[in-house]
């Protein structure tokens, strides 16, 4: 059970920087800070809601 969880967590370390890179190319220089702040807020929100949700499910 631990190995599949480790694989999922490892892929998260690759996915977020790739997502940031792809999205930063879509936004002009003046809005980069807004984009990165929004992504950081979304990451924080999901790290709070995710454990609560999955605890309720399992």
**What string, H for helix and E for strand, traces the elements in order?**
HH
Overall body shape? elongated
Please count the helical segments: 2
Radius of gyration: 14 Å
| Uncertain stretches | none
Beta-strand share of residues: under 5%
InterPro entries: MFS_trans_sf
Protein name: Tetracycline repressor protein
Organism: Escherichia coli
Chart the SSEs and their pairings:
Layout: H1 2-26, H2 32-57
Structure description:
The protein has helices at residues 2-26, 32-57. With 58 residues, it is mainly alpha-helical. The protein has one domain (2-57). The chain starts with a helix and ends with a helix. The model has no long low-confidence stretch (mean pLDDT 87).
Task: Provide a short characterization of the protein structure.
This protein has 58 residues and is mostly helical. It contains two helices and no strands. It is elongated.
Descriptive key words:
about 60 residues, mainly alpha, elongated
